[in-house]
Design goal:
heterodimer, A: mainly alpha, three-stranded antiparallel sheet, 5 helices, B: mainly alpha, about 75% helix, Tscrpt_reg_PadR_N (chain A), PadR family transcriptional regulator (chain A), WH-like_DNA-bd_sf (chain A), WH_DNA-bd_sf (chain A), transmembrane helix (chain B)
Chain lengths: ~120, ~280
C-alpha cells in the first residue's frame, strides 16, 4: 500500500514538473543539481523527480521561452548551466498555480479526505 | 568520477555532436559531479557515490532520444571485442607464414620434407577454420552472433575444404598418391557440411538492419521501375561497343597497337557515363 501511494505521489509530481521547476526558479536563478536538491529537500527526501525528467523539463521550458539559460564562470570543476525564469515564465507559473488551486479544491471535495465517506448530513 | 565520464560517453554514443547535444552533456556532467561531491562529503565511498549519482539520474538515453542521431548504423554500433581482434590477427599471421612456406617450396626456393609440408597445410586449414568460426560467433552491428555449434560447423567445413585443396597442391608437387583419398574425403565432407549448413541457415540480421534494407528495396532503381529504360540502355551499350571495336580495328591498322587500345577504354567510359545518366536521371 505504501508502494502504491508512493507511485501515486510520484505521478502527481511528475505531471507538474514544469510548474515545480518554475516555482524553484522564481526564488532565484539556479543550476540543475541545486534545483534537484531543492525539490528533494522540499519533499523531505521522500520523493524525488528523476534528474533525467528535469533535463527534459529545462529543454522544454527553454524552448517555450519560459526560462533562459547561461553558463556560469566556475574557476574549478565543470562549468554549470544556470537557469533564470523569464517574465513569460512567471506568468505561466501564476496561471498554473491558479489552475492547481482550483483543481485541488475540486479533487478535495470529490475525494473527501475528511473521511465522512458519504455526503455530509444536515441537521 | 571515471564511471561518470564512461556513462555519459555511452549515453551520447551515436548522437550527432551538435552544440546542443554537447551542451547537454556538459550540463549533466557538472551536475553529476556536484551530486558525487555531496555524497562524498556525507561519507560515501567515491565509487559508491558515482554509482548512486548515476542511478539517481534516471534514463539518460531517453533524454537524448530526441536529439538527432548521426545514422542508424551509429546508434546500433557494436564495437569489436579486443580479444577477438588479437586472436584473428595472430591466427592470420600463423596461417600466412605456413602458406608462405608452402609457396616457397612450390616454386622450388625451399625443399621441405613431405611431413613438414603436410603440417603446414594442416596449420593453414585449422587456423583459417578457427578464424571463420570465431568471426561467426561475434555479434556485429547488423548481425546477432551465430550459435556455437553452427559456427564450429562452418569453421570445420572451411578447414576441411582448405585441407583438401592443400593436399591437392601437395599432390601436384609430387607427394605419394594415397594422400589423394584423404583429400577427396576431406573435400566431399567439407562441401557436404557447407551445403547442409547453408540449406538450414536462418536469418541472423538485426531488426533495424532488415528495416533498413527493406527501405532501400522500396526505393528501387530506375531499371526495375522502368524496363523500357533498361532495354534502351542495352541497345545504347551495343552500339557503343560496336563503335569501339570498329574504332579499335581501324586504329590498330592505321596507328598500331600503341594507341588502338584507347578506343576500347573510351567505349567503356562512355558506357559507364550512359549507365550513370540513365540510372540517376538529372532532376528536372
Amino acid at each position: 500500500m505504501v508502494q502504491d501511494s508512493d507511485a501515486f505521489a510520484a505521478d502527481l509530481l511528475r505531471g507538474h514538473t514544469d510548474t515545480i521547476v518554475l516555482g524553484v526558479l522564481r526564488r532565484g536563478e539556479s543550476y540543475g543539481f541545486e534545483i534537484y536538491k531543492t525539490i528533494r529537500d522540499a519533499t523531505g527526501g521522500a520523493h524525488e523527480i528523476k534528474e533525467a525528467t528535469l533535463y527534459a523539463a529545462y529543454r522544454r521550458l527553454e524552448k517555450d521561452g519560459l526560462v533562459e539559460s547561461f553558463w556560469g564562470d566556475e574557476t574549478q570543476g565543470g562549468r554549470r548551466k544556470y537557469y533564470r525564469i523569464t517574465d513569460a515564465g512567471r506568468a505561466v507559473y501564476q496561471r498554473n498555480v491558479a489552475a492547481w488551486t482550483a483543481t485541488r479544491d475540486i479533487i478535495d471535495s470529490l475525494l473527501d479526505p475528511r473521511g465522512s465517506g458519504r455526503a455530509p448530513e444536515r441537521h | 568520477m571515471a564511471a561518470i565520464h564512461r556513462l555519459l560517453d555511452e549515453a551520447f554514443a551515436g548522437i550527432e555532436p551538435t552544440p546542443e547535444a554537447l551542451d547537454l552533456k556538459d550540463e549533466i556532467r557538472a551536475n553529476l559531479e556536484a551530486r558525487v561531491a555531496e555524497l562524498e562529503a556525507a561519507g560515501t565511498e567515491p565509487d559508491a557515490a558515482a554509482r548512486r549519482a548515476i542511478d539517481e539520474l534516471g534514463d539518460v538515453r531517453e533524454l537524448v532520444a530526441d536529439l538527432p542521431a548521426t545514422s542508424p548504423w551509429n546508434a546500433h554500433r557494436v564495437r569489436p571485442r579486443p580479444a577477438f581482434v588479437v586472436r584473428t590477427v595472430l591466427l592470420s599471421i600463423v596461417a600466412a607464414a605456413a602458406l608462405a612456406l608452402l609457396l616457397l617450396d612450390g616454386v622450388g626456393l625451399l625443399a621441405l620434407p613431405a611431413g613438414a609440408l603436410a603440417v603446414a597445410v594442416a596449420v593453414v586449414a585449422l587456423a583459417l577454420g578457427v578464424v571463420v568460426a570465431d568471426a561467426l560467433r561475434q555479434e556485429t552491428s547488423t548481425d546477432y552472433p551465430m550459435s556455437p555449434r553452427r559456427a564450429s560447423g562452418y569453421g570445420l567445413a572451411t578447414a576441411a575444404v582448405l585441407g583438401a585443396l592443400g593436399t591437392g597442391w601437395l599432390l601436384l608437387n609430387g607427394v605419394e598418391l594415397p594422400w589423394l583419398a584423404l583429400a577427396g574425403v576431406l573435400f566431399l565432407g567439407g562441401v557436404a557440411l557447407f551445403a547442409g549448413l547453408g540449406a538450414s541457415q536462418t536469418n541472423r540480421h538485426k531488426a533495424w538492419a532488415l528495416q533498413q534494407s527493406d527501405h532501400y528495396a522500396e526505393q528501387g532503381d530506375r531499371f526495375t521501375r522502368d524496363p523500357a529504360a533498361a532495354a534502351r540502355f542495352g541497345i545504347y551499350t551495343l552500339v557503343i561497343m560496336v563503335l569501339a571495336v570498329v574504332a579499335f580495328i581501324v586504329l590498330t591498322v592505321t596507328l598500331g597497337w600503341a594507341w588502338s587500345w584507347l578506343a576500347l577504354v573510351g567505349g567503356f567510359l562512355l558506357m559507364m557515363i550512359v549507365l550513370a545518366r540513365m540510372l540517376f536521371p538529372p532532376a528536372r
